[in-house]
Design a protein that fits this description.
- With 330 residues, the protein is α/β, with parallel strands linked by helices.
- Helices cover 38% and strands 15% of the residues.
- The protein contains 10 helices and 10 strands.
- It has helices spanning 4-14, 39-49, 62-71, 75-84, 87-92, 107-117, 149-157, 184-189, 257-279, 301-329; strands at 26-30, 56-60, 102-104, 128-135, 141-144, 161-163, 166-168, 171-175, 194-201, 284-289.
- Strands 1, 2, 4, 5, 7, 8, 9 and 10 form an 8-stranded mixed beta sheet that branches. A two-stranded parallel ribbon has the order 3-6.
- Helix 3 packs across helix 4 (75-84).
- The two termini are 40 Å apart.
Length: 330
C-alpha cells in the first residue's frame, strides 16, 4: 500500500502555491548531522539579515528540527534552548528505554517539541515545509508534508537504535538521513525555483577515497610469490577515537558501541548524500566545516551557531549570483 504522505507530496507538485515575491521562490534543503545541525540556526539568521528569506524548507533529521522550528516562528526559542545546553542537561534529556526498538524512548524530547509546537499542523505554517523520513522494513523514502508538525519532526530525527521509530498513519518511520540526508529533491517538489543546500562537514570525516592495508608481511619483505612487497599503509588498530561528548569512549584500544554505531551511520549518510547531490545538485551550496566538534556535542551550540554564520557569509556571493541569473531568465 503506498504511503499517503508521498501522494500528498506529488499533489503539491501539480498545484504549487502562488509566489509571495517577484523573484525566484527560494527553497532551503537543511541536511542531517546531529549536533552539527545547530549551525543551521546561524545560517537562517544570516540569510534573513540579508533579505534572503526562504519560502520553502525541506529538512532531514536535525534539519527537520531546525527547519520546522523556523517555519513555526520558533527559531529564537530553539536558539535559546540550544545555547542553554550543558553536558549534564543533555544527559538529563536522555530517557533510556531498556525495552523497545531504541536506546531512548524520546519522550522528554517529544514533550519539549510539543511545548513549542503544540497541535500545529504543517499546512498551518507560514512557509511550505516538508520533512523526510524512512519507512521501517521497506526503506521507502517518505515525504511528510501534512499532519502534525511535531510528529513529522520526531519521525525525521528518529535515529535507528537510538530513538524508537514513530508511528504515523499506521507506518513506522525513522531517520530520513538513511535515504535522503540533504533533501534537495523534496525542496523542488514543493515548488522551489532555486534550491540552497546546507551540509556540515567534520575535519576528520568525509574525505572518501580508498586505502589498501595489510595485516601481515613476510619476514624477509617478500610475498609468497617471491615478489617484494610494496609499501602499504598499516591498519589503525590502536588509534584512540576522537572524543564525542558524553558518548565518548574511555578505552584506548577501540571505539565504544555508541561511537561505532554513530560512525557507521554517519559514513552511510555521507555516501548517500554525495550520490543524491550528484544526481540532483542544488543551485547553491552552504558547506559548513565544524572542525572536530562531535556529533553529540549538543552543548557546543555557541561555537556551532557562529560557524554557521561564517559559512553562509562565505557563500553569499554565489547565492546572490544564482538569484540574479534566475531573475534574468524569467
Amino acid at each position: 500500500m503506498p504511503i499517503p504522505f508521498i501522494n500528498r507530496a506529488k499533489a503539491v507538485i501539480e498545484a504549487p502555491t502562488p509566489r509571495s515575491t517577484s523573484g525566484p521562490r527560494i527553497g532551503l534543503a537543511l541536511g542531517a548531522g546531529a549536533a552539527h545541525g545547530w549551525t543551521q540556526i546561524g545560517i537562517l539568521q544570516v540569510l534573513e539579515a540579508h533579505g534572503l528569506r526562504p519560502e520553502i524548507i525541506a529538512g532531514s533529521s536535525i534539519g527537520a528540527v531546525v527547519g520546522g522550528c523556523y517555519a513555526a516562528g520558533k527559531l529564537t526559542n530553539l536558539e535559546s534552548f540550544a545555547r542553554s545546553l550543558t553536558p549534564r542537561r543533555v544527559f538529563s534529556l536522555m530517557d533510556f528505554a531498556f525495552s523497545g526498538a531504541g536506546l531512548l524512548s524520546g519522550g522528554r524530547l517529544k514533550n519539549l517539541l510539543e511545548s513549542q509546537m503544540g497541535t500545529l499542523t504543517i499546512p498551518e505554517l507560514a512557509l511550505k515545509f516538508g520533512a523526510v523520513a524512512t519507512q521501517c522494513k521497506t526503506g521507502q523514502e517518505v515525504w511528510l508534508t501534512s499532519g502534525s508538525l511535531c510528529d513529522a519532526v520526531r519521525a525525521s530525527y528518529a535515529l535507528p537504535g537510538i530513538f524508537e521509530p514513530v508511528n504515523i498513519g499506521g507506518d513506522w518511520l525513522f531517520d530520513g538521513a538513511l535515504v535522503n540526508p540533504v533533501p534537495v529533491t523534496l525542496c523542488r517538489a514543493l515548488g522551489a525555483d532555486l534550491v540552497i543546500a546546507v551540509t556540515m562537514v567534520a575535519d576528520n570525516f568525509g574525505r572518501g577515497g580508498v586505502r589498501v592495508a595489510s595485516l601481515a608481511r613476510a619476514p624477509d619483505g617478500q610475498g609468497d610469490d617471491g615478489v617484494p612487497n610494496k609499501p602499504t599503509m598499516p591498519l589503525p588498530l590502536s588509534i584512540e577515537p576522537p572524543r564525542r561528548g558524553f558518548l565518548a569512549t574511555r578505552r584506548a584500544s577501540a571505539p565504544s558501541i555508541a561511537n561505532t554505531m554513530l560512525d557507521a551511520f554517519n559514513i552511510t549518510q555521507d555516501r548517500i548524500a554525495r550520490s543524491r547531490l550528484a544526481g540532483d545538485p542544488p543551485d547553491a551550496m552552504i558547506k559548513c566545516r565544524v572542525g572536530k566538534i562531535g556529533l553529540f556535542d549538543f552543548h557546543r551550540a555557541d561555537e556551532l551557531i557562529a560557524l554557521g554564520k561564517a559559512a553562509v557569509e562565505n557563500a553569499l556571493d554565489d547565492i546572490k549570483l544564482e538569484i540574479g541569473a534566475a531573475l534574468q531568465s524569467e
